[in-house]
Write a structure and sequence with these properties.
- The complex is a heterotrimer.
- Chain A is α/β, with parallel strands linked by helices.
- Chain A is built from 4 helices and 7 strands; from the N terminus they run βαβαβαβββαβ.
- Chain A has a single domain, classed as 3-Layer(aba) Sandwich (Hypothetical Protein Ychn, Chain: A).
- Chain A starts with 6 loop residues before the first strand and ends with a strand.
- Chain B has one domain: 3-Layer(aba) Sandwich (Hypothetical Protein Ychn, Chain: A).
- Chain B has 5 helices and 5 strands.
- In chain B, α1 packs parallel to α2.
- The radius of gyration of chain B is 14 Å and the shape is globular.
- Classes of the chains: A alpha/beta, B alpha/beta, C alpha/beta.
- Chains in contact: A-B, A-C, B-C.
């Protein structure tokens, strides 16, 4: 059964660990990869906190799921939008976030950045151009 | 219009399940097609048949079961979220060694692919949550 | 191509309405449901965020919370669940600002 591909946009606006939404939304992205749609992820508001480096959850006894973000490239998720204003408001820079990459098999598996730092206005355009919006 | 509805919160704690129910009912009354209602996160708790709400209040679980029966709705509870929160059908009980099941009539437990498929196949995805 | 923005939290409790209105473009529509209906109270600070926007509010949620229609911002559309369905149909997609 083949139909035209839809632009899927998974929107992440919540911090990790305080609630389960961040992790359970990632589970949808991983399963969703099998459906071969045109996938993008967006991180804005407190969602930007999901991507910080150096998460160590031993003290709170929860599973550290942050390594899953770096595996996204293997699931053909290559478009990860991070909203600039949300980062800045929260006192973070791109340097505080994981360096997420994907391997472009069309260019000899050259490593490319998955994270696209965009303004709110730019992200609004990307969301407006999407077909299906997932929120958690 | 073909709709997939996603419910992210459990019964009573949030208004999400109520809002989703009234939206779904109104869509059916207008002749639209409900492709699937997918229950995720704590939303899976809408699928337990063991609730005993007060007599003078709405019975959220039964309301969904009744709507499903009247219209042949596909009410899907996410398996991963259900395992975490203890919503169990026969298959899950056997697979995971549980001594009971609690799935409500009209609901079935299935994978996250059902939500993604809803997104692919429907004209609109409407999410109710917190 | 217009989007329906759905907000369900009180603007006095959470920043969802602020984000939603910042993301609204062109002909986009905004529907306030559940606790977000409080944003529509004319004399409330949050109503300023609704200025110049195409806003609807769910009547049943207003009534449940005892907010009379004459307290609302001018020109707001008060709709029911059937109207909610129509709004979903009239727009290309729905963005739930949870």
């Amino acid at each position: 059964m083949s139909e035209e591909t839809k632009k899927f946009m998974y929107i992440n606006r919540k911090a990790p660990y305080g609630t389960i939404y961040a992790w359970e939304s990632l589970e949808v992205v991983l399963i969703g990869a099998a459906f071969e749609q045109d996938v993008s992820l967006a991180f804005l508001d407190d969602g930007v906190f999901q991507l910080t480096k150096g998460q160590d959850t031993k003290g709170i006894g929860m599973k550290n799921f942050s390594p899953t973000y770096s595996a996204l490239g293997d699931y053909e998720v290559t478009k990860i939008y991070v909203e600039k204003e949300s980062l800045e408001e929260r006192g973070l820079t791109l340097d505080d976030l994981q360096h997420l990459v994907w391997e472009d098999e069309d260019e000899d598996y050259a490593e490319k950045d998955s994270i696209r730092l965009v303004s709110r206005a730019e992200l609004a355009e990307v969301i407006a151009a999407s077909d299906v919006l997932f929120n958690f | 219009m073909k709709l997939t509805i996603q419910v992210n919160e459990g019964p009573y704690q949030h208004q999400s399940s109520d809002s989703a129910y009234y939206f779904t009912k109104a869509a059916l009354e207008k002749g639209h097609e409900i492709f699937r209602v997918f229950f995720y996160h704590d939303g899976v708790n809408n699928g337990t048949r063991l609730t005993t709400p007060p007599q003078d209040d709405r019975n959220i679980v039964k309301r969904w079961s009744d709507l499903a029966e009247a219209h042949g709705l596909d009410l899907v509870v996410c398996v991963a979220a259900a395992q975490r929160r203890g919503i169990v059908d026969e298959g899950e009980a056997q697979r995971n060694g549980k001594d009971a099941t609690n799935i409500a009539p009209g609901f079935r437990i299935s994978g996250l692919g059902q939500l993604v498929e809803g997104g692919v196949q429907s004209d609109r995805l409407v999410v109710f949550g917190d | 191509m217009a989007m329906l923005h759905l907000v369900n939290k009180s603007p006095y409790d959470a920043g969802n309405l602020e984000t939603a209105t910042a993301y609204m473009q062109g002909d986009d529509a905004l529907l306030l449901i559940e606790d977000a209906i409080y944003a529509a109270i004319k004399a409330g600070k949050a109503s300023a965020m609704l200025a110049g926007k195409n806003v609807s509010v769910l009547g049943p949620d207003l009534a449940a919370r005892g907010i009379a229609e004459d307290k609302l911002v001018e020109g707001i559309n008060i709709i029911d669940y059937a109207g909610f369905v129509d709004l979903v149909e009239a727009n290309d997609k729905v963005q739930s600002w949870l």
